[in-house]
Write a structure and sequence with these properties.
alpha/beta, 5-stranded parallel β-sheet, 7 strands
């Protein structure tokens, strides 16, 4: 599997389109530092992943990379606020105010809610808030619209783009969802392997 060289500035968005099995999630895992490339290198800002120990990479990922997974993966034993605080716990850098962030995402009234009471769309927005909690340099979104209707899919994409622009982060969305193409001008298509 070969991926093109990419260089993006803060606030820019890239869409990676491809069918199931095309390597989109592998690409995302490489960018997140969850996998190591067989050849080449991955650099975010001044850091080259290959030069970091596993512990340094974990710390760097926690502080500089926000990941929006396909499924929210919220901790059921914690409420909404506590899920975001967990993301911030391991960071030594300035983090976003949780109440303000949830308010911007239309979740201010849900700050103390049990995650089991959230709708699918609310849980997805809490997942986005968790990814943004540490002011990351890179936001990675894996199939963020896969289970959403057209209206909510557009709202999630606009929310991701607006938040990335606000904090000056690069946004990379990987998906098979062709609807996203009309919202992100910069895209690459990954052929099926």
């Amino acid at each position: 599997m070969k991926f093109p060289d990419l260089a993006l500035d803060g606030g820019e968005a890239l869409l990676v389109l491809g069918k199931s099995g095309s390597g989109k999630t592998t690409f995302l895992n490489l960018l997140a530092g969850l996998l190591s490339p067989a050849t080449g290198s991955i650099q975010l800002g001044e850091k080259t992943y290959g030069s970091l120990s596993a512990q340094q990479l974990d710390k760097y990922r926690g502080e500089e990379i926000g990941i929006v997974f396909q499924k929210p993966h919220l901790l059921a034993a914690l409420n909404v606020k506590e899920n975001l605080q967990m993301a911030q716990y391991f960071s030594v850098k300035k983090t976003q105010d949780i109440s303000s962030l949830l308010g911007e995402l239309g979740l201010g009234a849900k700050i103390s809610a049990a995650v089991s009471t959230l709708s699918e769309g609310e849980a997805q927005r809490v997942s986005i808030a968790r990814a943004l909690a540490n002011h990351p340099k890179l936001i990675l979104a894996d199939e963020p619209t896969a289970s959403l209707d057209d209206e909510n899919a557009e709202a999630v994409i606009q929310l991701l783009k607006n938040q990335a622009l606000k904090i000056g982060a690069v946004l990379i969305i990987v998906t098979h969802d062709q609807r996203v193409k009309k919202h992100v001008e910069n895209f690459v298509e990954v052929p099926v392997l």
